[in-house]
Write a structure and sequence with these properties.
Layout lengths: L5 E10 L2 E11 L4 E5 L6 H9 L6 E6 L2 E2 L10 E4 L11 H11 L4 H14 L15 H13 L5 E5 L7 H18 L2 E6 L2 H7 L2 E6 L2 E6 L1 H6 L4 H6 L4 E14 L2 E8 L4 E7 L8 E6 L5 E3 L10 E13 L3 E8 L4 E7 L15 E7 L3 E6 L3
Parallel strand pairs: 3-8, 3-9, 6-7, 7-8
Antiparallel strand pairs: 1-2, 1-4, 4-5, 9-10, 11-12, 11-14, 12-13, 14-20, 15-19, 16-17, 16-19, 17-18
Helix pairs in contact: 2-3, 2-4, 3-4
Length: about 375
Amino acid sequence: MKGCDVSIEGVSKSFGTFRALDDANIKINKGEFFSLLGPSGCGKTTLLRIIAGFESPDTGIVSFDGRNIIGIEANKRESNTVFQNYALFPHLSVFENIAFPLRIRKVPETEIRTKVMEYLRLVQLDAHVHKKPNQLSGGQKQRVAIARALINEPSVLLLDEPLSALDAKLRQNLLVELDTIHDQIGITFIYVTHDQSEALSVSDRIAVMNQGKVLQIGTPFEIYESPATEFVAKFIGETNLFDSRVVECVKHQEDEYMVTLDIPELGEHIKVTDYDETQHGQQVSFTVRPEKIRITLEEPKTSGKEINVFKGIVEEPIYSGFQSKFYVKLDNGTMMKVFKQHQNYLEDGPEITWKDTVYVSWSANDGYIVEVINQ
């Protein structure tokens, strides 16, 4: 495995009275595609700039394979950065832009030609070798920037929102190419983005950040299915989130509890399975993803099953081709989001339409207690 382990320990950084990073602790494995994900101003770019050597932390250390790199100049670290705005030399050809880091090192001309052509093929730009940046599309410019950052064979590639200037379809295509390049090169990628779908698509693991803090680190599956906080639950995808109180918690299976929650917004008790024992009266946050909820015109049969069922009226149906989104106003006035996947051909259009009376239901296994609220 190429690349190196990256360790961030107790890193904090303030700009005047603004605390951009607050005791960040992350361990990134050798060869991993790791994403720093969060909204604007959460501290992810500041952390990337500290790793790159463009900023110094107030406290804490950053290590590559156990060696503290704080204090080492940016151009002497085993990392290179791909920026959002490409940072290409407009007067140089594609070939010369990629060759530039090798010319700085005074690499022999024959080796330069061999390596540049190798990386041009890697990013599929060998047919554009003599073009100038102004003759390239946005996606092609970004691929030139990636090739230039990789040609020095760094142990760590830092990518600062590299796709945000591109349109949605091109962004998705380049994201797939970037993942393929990572698989071929095998070094450590640290990718900064505010787009949760990008992070979920390509990352081995993700650190979700907000207000300078690292809230949760995990695989895309763990982050989406088992969010650690209310913020993570709301930021990653869409969800229905409620404050609730534990009414009962009983042993359900060997390592599982059946919890009854009182949710004032729903006006009823609901059932949810959980791996942790909670206490009667404890305040918790409960979430259920819209795609986990069934929506039907007929009341579902629940005998012998732990199914939560509510009746309501479709206030807003949104047809999106592959799925429909429904905003259902329950009988008590609470609005719930429900996603219905279209798995079969709809000859006569969607079955459920505006102002239909419907039933929304989900299994106790499909809800999730996000966090226990301190009282």
